[in-house]
Amino acid sequence: MTLVCVKNVHKAFGDLEVLKGIDLEVGQGEVVAIIGRSGSGKSTLLRCLNQLEKHDRGAITIADKRLDGEAMSPKELSENVGMVFQSFNLFPHKTVGENVCLAPVVVRGESRASAEKVAREVLAKVGLSDKYDSYPAQLSGGQQQRVAIARALAMRPKVLLCDEVTSALDPELVGEVLRVLEALAAEGMTLILVTHEMGFARDVADRVVFMHQGRIHEAGPPADLFGNPQTAELKQFISAVL
Amino acid sequence: MIEFSLWDILRNLLLATRWTIVLSLIAFVGGATVGLVLTFMRLSSSRILQRFTSLYVDLFQGTPLLMQLFLIFFGAAALGHPISAWLAASVALTLFTSAFLCDIWRGCLEAVAKGQWHAARVLGMNYFQTMRHVILPQALRLSVPPTVGFSVQVIKGTALASIIGFVELTKAGTMLNNATFEPFTIFTLVALLYFALCYPLSCYARHLEKKLYDAGLR
Amino acid sequence: MGVTLDFLTLLPYASELVRGLTTTVILTVVTTLTGIALAVVVAYLRLHGRSWTRFCMGSYVEVTRNTPFIVQLFFIFFGLPGLGIQIDAITAAFLAMTLNLAAYSAEILRAGIGATAQGQLEAARALGMTRLQSYRHVVLIPAFARVYPALISQSVIVMLGSAVVSQISVFDLTYAANFIQSRNFRSFEVYLVITLAYLLLAFVMRRVFMLAGNRLFAYQQGESR
Predict the structure, then answer these.
(1) Do the chains B and A touch each other, judged by at least 3 C-beta pairs below 8 angstroms?
(2) In chain C, what are the domains?
(3) ipTM of this complex
(4) Residue (of A118, A177, A175, A116) closest to A143 by Cα position
(5) How does pLDDT run across B171-212, given as a tens digit for each residue?
(6) pTM (2 decimals)?
(7) Which pairing describes strands A16-27 and A2-13: parallel, antiparallel, or unpaired?
(8) Does C137 contact chain A (CB < 8 Å)?
(9) Does C78 touch chain B (CB under 8 A)?
């Protein structure tokens, strides 16, 4: 069953065309890794999926509902699409628990008690139950990023977008974040990740999408893409990153 | 009873503005001179001089300018040496300005990175050579925008001289008001005249600040 | 020189001193709260209002910052009644101090808000918050924390500047000083004592603010990872 459908999406910043017609379908429960050089448009595509960037042309639907333009309110959008950022972006003046509870209470209007219950559940899922009352500044980068994942999950989104979520981490902290994502994938969460972690893409993703100069250049199961790249650009990219 | 036309009012205010400008210039030049001496006292290695300047700055920044004015004006009289409002205002504003400029300039000197001192040291420069060739030129650039910005505070500060009877713009305004009973017109004009003096300086300070920022120095 | 200082002549006027001090403290406390609250609104409108709202707020801020407080006070106390708006001295003092503090604080806050990381705003949007919600829950408190020292200084400046309200017969500390020295003819002693009272007030104010800040922005402790 198709969950996310991207049709002929274009996006330009001034004269710079960043997305030149993207078509992509992501099924329920699928894990899609988007790879490519910096500047290939992969982050922009991800940001279009929750309208942090408004695309110029084309259509994006989630569960058969248009999310672009004015079709979805910010609230509705956040209940469909969650996002985790490279730089965590936790709210520094709120505790871990408050970070996770904030949107459910403020945006969805849930009661504090039920939001706190959900917060404890999702924090347990990322292995940080004991940090409920800590402030972000007291956590390591890896822990902060796991809180950010929990915060996104608390809105119970249908799909989770991950924008280079391990790029800002010290190497020894990357593993704990990837393990959380792996567990989510195993639970059947739909994930779309922009990533530089080729090992993770190969082991966990159902499908890998290689973007090049604003287009999807090659896509397919990781074994095919990494084992038998068809285009010169992908071959070059793989040899450069591996 | 004399009738005042709008032009009469404006003319009298403009004439009084001269004294606001003169008093501002005296306070600024005097304050800069004293402030410079204070800044170097602050930088000296003598503990006593450092203590003295920081106490001086704290006292003038922690008390109302109006009280400083009263203390000098009435204090001199009470101590048997009455002085004119004009002199009292000049002295009070000079001291007030010097304290703030000293604080601003000390901040600028400290803002020059410690690494610059180290770099000069390893090149074999002594304290004065380092000051002269490395630190001061950089601190000077940093100090221009806040110094220009503070000149606005000096101009506004001169308005308090009206309270001890010095006839500058604000005093002229209250006197004209007593004669004409047109407070709205008069105080609007007074405010506009101060604005005309201060706003260009504020803009210039902001422009300089931006230029420094763009040059990557801030 | 046969001049001697005699502070004992102030003693009979203790009740005037207390009255003046109380007025100054109340004026300061109230205008600090109202001024900073107004500053939040002004800063927000200056950043996000329609173009004419932005222009009006900008004009208000610039005019206030570029004219003396005493002229603002006279304009409100003497000028507004000229337009038929009657106002008593203490209200005029509250109004003038609030408007003055708000104009400066709005600029300070605007800088603090402007320093909000883009990522914080994006995270709030991705969680579905509207701009007002993100201001309330995400932007404002860290912005306040960033510019808190500047806000303290500005409030102290307004407190010290409030000495001028004595000129419209508000019975504040300075008015008490003028009152006493007109009776005991000991102007120097009186002004010295009152100056020290202001100094103490400024010191206490900074302390209280700082302690409040430590509690309000406790999240910054343990910042070192």
Answers:
(1) no
(2) 7-216 (1.10.3720.10)
(3) 0.92
(4) A177
(5) 999 999 999 888 999 999 999 999 999 999 999 999 999 998
(6) 0.88
(7) antiparallel
(8) yes
(9) yes
